[in-house]
Amino acid sequence: MIDESRAGGGSSDEERDVAGHLQVAAPEPTSKTGASPQKPPPPGSRKRGTARASLREEFLALFRDTGRPSRPPPGTSLTEGETGLPPTQPSIFLRRFLRPAAPSPELAPSGLTDLDDRLAGGFGPGLHLVVGLPGVGKTAFLESVAWEAISSERPVLYYALKDGGLGAWERLISTLGHILGGPVIPLDALRARRLAAHDLETLTRLDLALQASVLPYLSLVETIPAYTDTLSALIKDIRLRAQEARERHGKIPLLLVDDLERLPLFSPARPRPDLLSRLDDALAADSIPGLLAATSPSPSSCVLERLPVQTMLALASVTTSANNAPERVDLELQANARTGWTGTLPMLLDRCSGLFTHPSTGTEREPL
User: Fold this and answer.
1) pLDDT at 55
2) Cβ-based neighbours of 88, under 8 Å, separated by 6 or more
3) How many domains does the chain have?
């Protein structure tokens, strides 16, 4: 029998090996410039010690079957754009990278110079409690801080648990008229629904202004989600709304809760200090400054409870007014975690506008 591998031009295994080696070692045809074009080796064939530039060639070869140019345009690098990359959706890492970074914790100024000086600039992350007798102006104080935040385009989450969204809207409409310096509608007239024809026109104009300049930054919330653990539901709701506001406006929102008495009703098994401690921990963890109003028959007794809050403010009415003049309200800073300063600051409450001011600054504000 004739071995075909040795006859008829056949080659032995050794000859094929030699030919193979010769084929690999054969020089490439030279180009016009005289240099031999480099042909990238198959992916994965690069041996240890090979020049680093060949790694780029290997990856370029990987992308040649994608229907896109495998080499970047002259003067650019592979990392510029997506030249040669397969068409696909951005990765979760790219989406996270492009997401606006969470801003650093910001203080929330009250707009009251003396108070902000004592707070080292304003209310920091965590819970701040505002206590006082009924009617002393706790809600007005919260809303004064809200107007200060909105004037700097900072979002506000306002849980109007005491009077509901409509009651808060009525106060906002009345206050906005005073801020804009035009025709105003007294809050009493709004609540009594005693509006003349020209008042209805003013109300419509103010409502449009409120929608355009205020409500984009102010979220009015009327109820707490009803779950077995309402405090946990409230914290979750705050976090979801805060994240949405942060992504929309690029700032950590200010939280307002009016009033504290609603929380123990929903969580009767938890004592008040425990409720406040959990809420303070959650707000501090998310860098959210939050003001919470609470009615107290004896504000000084709150100190004995040693409530776990960042700041405790007690409002006490000193004078009342029968001719729409600003009333004197003493603001007692009973606890202050930022600076440690405690004491009493005199303030003025304009019942017509619903705004707190410092006695030396008057009651006028710049238009929004």
Assistant:
1) 82
2) none
3) 1
